[in-house]
Amino acid sequence: MADTEKTYKCLNPAGIQPATETYALAPRLDALDGKEIYFSICGEPDITIPLEKRLKTDYPNVTWKIKKTYGTTPMPLSDEEMRTCDGVIQGVAW
Amino acid sequence: MPYLARLEKAGIPTVVIDFEDQTEMVKQTALVNGIPNVRYLHASRVLTGPEDVDNIIGPIMEALTEPLTDKEKETGRWEPPQQRILFEGTLDEAETFYQKTTLVPFPINAPIAVYTDGLPIRVPTEERVREMLTGTRHKPDELITYQSERPAMMRGREKKKGDVVEFEPMKMTATVEKVATIAVMAGCKPEHLPAVLAIAESSCSTGTTVFWGQWVCISGPYAKEIGMNVGAGMIDPGSPVNMPIGRAYQLIAINLGGATPGVNRMNSIGSPFNSGGTCFAENADGLPAGWKGLNEEYGFKKDESVAMVMNVGGSIQGGQFSPGGYRALQKSGHGGIARRLDVKGTPGPHNFLEYLLPGFWASREGGITFVMVPEMAQHLHDYGFKTKDEVYEWVQKRSLTTVEHYKTYSWPDIGTNGWLGIEPTSGKHWKELADDYLVPLVNDPRDICIIVGGGEEEVCQELAGRRGASSPVYSIDAWR
Predict the structure, then answer these.
(1) What are the extents of the domains in chain B?
(2) What pTM was estimated for this model as a whole?
(3) A2 or B188: whose pLDDT is higher?
């Protein structure tokens, strides 16, 4: 066999990706009124400051709670807060 | 995204707001965290806040209330295939195969290499990888694990010796054989493998947005042992040792980390360090008396070898001396630099850092890594800095600035969490401090670093600094 026709087994450089279980999203809200929704803010005050104001004025029957950091890692809800939380808006980092 | 996954799995509906160019990153991270169909809306990089809110407030609330689609209700298991032999064929066919590309959508809209850095590679045949593995006593099927304890860094957690390394951003793991495969692709020789394994132990992060540059500096006798260039052009092309080891970092990031431009590696323009990779070495023989090598700075012995693996914001800059301009300063105290430092007519040694420093912090805070030729290190020593630590402390003091000026930088708005916390040097709340109170732009003297190497022409280049509280150093000897 000519050298150019010789075949070789060539190894895979890709890493070993662990299997991941994938989940359905949580069911959506049937209504907004009376719900407790968290606005979880990570930076970008140019967007989040006016958004917070509009959420409160446009949806006054929602109980709005705010979790805020200027950094990029969200301030998480505590276990207790998760028990009464009906929804989370996360932005602009996550 | 792990946090959002936790919420969704707990039955709490969420919606994420980010920019359009981050779409591929959101999708991939959501998949890796088990919620591939996370609802995501685009904010604008350019519209004013109120205009942007007009556009997105309705869709935000719809994202929380519109019933799930069939796709969003799916559960399953994502398990990419993993085969040891990726390709079988002639060398020519293999060379073509490994240059496979994928089309990455906005913000790139161009083909990006799947297995390489865009350049052709040396095909990793079984025979070549077997030969590469003679460079280490570690077994081929051994997982890459931490060889020592590591403190937590940024969003990470503390690592114990023996913990398996997860390569970011895809959290993949790897065997010694996979690293050897990549070392073949990069053009390394078996004697380079311990350095490549030490680099792999760092997990080869590439950062996310803005611009991050990765580079490696070897310290210890290993550099001379394998024939690294520590002299002129040590960060330039030419060395068949420096170049492939530096390249291995990037190929590890691509193949073991899954780092893909426009998807999860979002450098907006990029860094020259990352093109082809960067590895150089400290010139231990060029250190002034009493100045520790990088290995000794991190508690290793002089005869132990380490890889300092850096992934830092920013690129490289350096003072531009005219031909002879620096020498005139030190030899006889003449020329522009001498006039700037007010030492006209006085022979050196003079502290040239006084000339370099003021411009460094014009638009950035933080530590500095000085890469300087041995002659200039010797001038600093002769001037009076008998240890590197003395230089580090001096530079940190020079970084003092008023609170008023500090508030005109970009990062401190985030670093201080909107000026809500305690200023560390005073123990007082930021908002209680007078405008003229002095704070350092460099948090810790150990955020500054000096690496001695390079040729005879007098050059000192500045790179972003390290984080003094953490160690970016990995033992090469542990991987021999």
Answers:
(1) 2-73, 91-316+472-479, 350-464
(2) 0.94
(3) B188
